[in-house]
Amino acid sequence: MHFITTFDPHSFRDTFISYMSAFVFGTLIGAERQYRQRTAGLRTNALVALGAAAFVDLAQHLAGSADAVRVIAYVVSGVGFLGAGVIMKDGANVRGLNTAATLWCSAAVGACSGTDMVAEAGMLTLFIIAGNTLLRPLVRAIDRIPVASQSEEATYSVSVLTDHAHAGQLRDLIVDRLEEARFPVAEVELSDHAQGSIEISATLSSNVLDTDELEKVVNRLEDEQGVTHATWLTEREN
């Protein structure tokens, strides 16, 4: 048999160590994911690491290090497609990005093991587990920090109610007052409102501004002749 004539105990032992280290490290990464009930858990991460190690080790044994590098590139792109499958978009929310990133890192652990860099694979495993555990309190702490209104991105608009006789004049006045206060206007719309009044809506092109100063401009507009009501609106961006 060809197997008997080509079998090399030293090469087999080397491959076994690569596979075993990839399996163990992938299992450690997956255990943390399984504990947190993530989509890609213990078995998935272990198999991704093991599969990456197998492909890289096979290429290295058959064609040497140069071809192993090319196989690593294919592993990176292939696991990228696998990770895309666990990413789900629900409206404005995107879930699964961290799971996909963990799978990608598990493949890197397997690639290190497949190239006999077992110590590096172990170190990378520690960093991956640390990223998924030790950084969680920091993430929660940052999420609890309130965002200042001056730095929060939003769409701002100024709305004024008037009659048909003053609509044209007030339209130009609103633009002038806003631009004098350094609030550039992106768009102005006139629309019919209740009881025959006209609503003038000016959308600002800046999405980060001083709301106190905007309030002062609106108060001055409300004192103009023909204005029955003036206000400013904001729509927060997700």
What does this structure look like?
- Virulence factor required for growth in low Mg(2+) medium and for intramacrophage survival. May be involved in regulating membrane potential by activating Na(+)/K(+)-ATPase.
- Belongs to the MgtC/SapB family.
- It is a multi-pass membrane protein.
- The chain has 238 residues and is of the alpha+beta class.
- It folds into 2 domains: 142 residues, no CATH class; 83 residues, Alpha-Beta Plaits.
- It is 61% helix and 16% strand.
- It is built from 9 helices and 6 strands; from the N terminus they run ααααββαααβαββαβ.
- The strands form 2 sheets. A 4-stranded antiparallel sheet has the order 4-5-3-6, with helices on one face.
- Helix 2 runs parallel beside helix 6.
- The protein starts with a helix and ends with a strand.
Through-space gap between termini: 65 Å
Q: Provide the number of structural domains.
A: 2
What does the radius of gyration come to?
A: 31 Å
How many DSSP helices?
9
Poorly predicted ranges (pLDDT <50, ≥5 residues)?
Answer: none
Strand count, sense and barrel status of the largest sheet are:
4 strands, antiparallel
The strand count comes to 6
Tell me, rounded to a whole number, the average pLDDT.
Answer: 84
Strand content: 15-25%
Assign the structural class, choosing from mainly alpha, mainly beta, alpha/beta, alpha+beta, or little secondary structure.
alpha+beta
What is the helix content? 55-70%
Order of helices and strands: HHHHEEHHHEHEEHE
**Arrangement of strands in the largest sheet:** 4-5-3-6
Q: What sort of overall outline do the alpha carbons produce when their principal axes are compared?
A: rod-shaped
